[in-house]
Design goal:
With about 100 residues, the chain is of the alpha/beta class. Helix content is about 40%, strand content about 25%.
Length: about 100
């Protein structure tokens, strides 16, 4: 199951308006490291579907969100809890790194 890509209009409802943890993958289609971790993110999302919501945001298509959250390096995964950013990781390479984000 691939992560669903959301846009700025959906971000408020799907990320900021949610109680509980949400992970957002800020990526770009041309980014090699983004493509490299995509299968891991998809597996993690499937295995943790009951615990956390996960989405992806294309930094090229959603420049406003990228600027708002200070995305300078991709892939950047930001953990939100109850609508607030709690932690971020740049190019997390393991499921354990994602676990740390949802535990924040």
């Amino acid at each position: 199951m691939a992560l669903r890509q959301i846009n700025a209009a959906e971000f408020q409802q799907e990320v900021l308006g949610v109680d509980g943890p949400v992970l957002v993958d800020f990526f770009a289609t041309w980014c090699g490291p983004c493509r490299a971790i995509a299968p891991m993110l998809d597996r993690f999302a499937e295995e943790h579907a009951q615990e956390v919501k996960m989405y992806k945001v294309d930094t090229d298509a959603e420049e406003t969100l990228s600027t708002q959250y200070g995305i300078r390096t991709i892939p950047t995964i930001i953990a939100f809890r109850n609508g607030a950013e709690v932690k971020r990781a740049i190019f997390p390479r393991t499921p354990a790194a994602l676990e740390e984000l949802i535990q924040a």
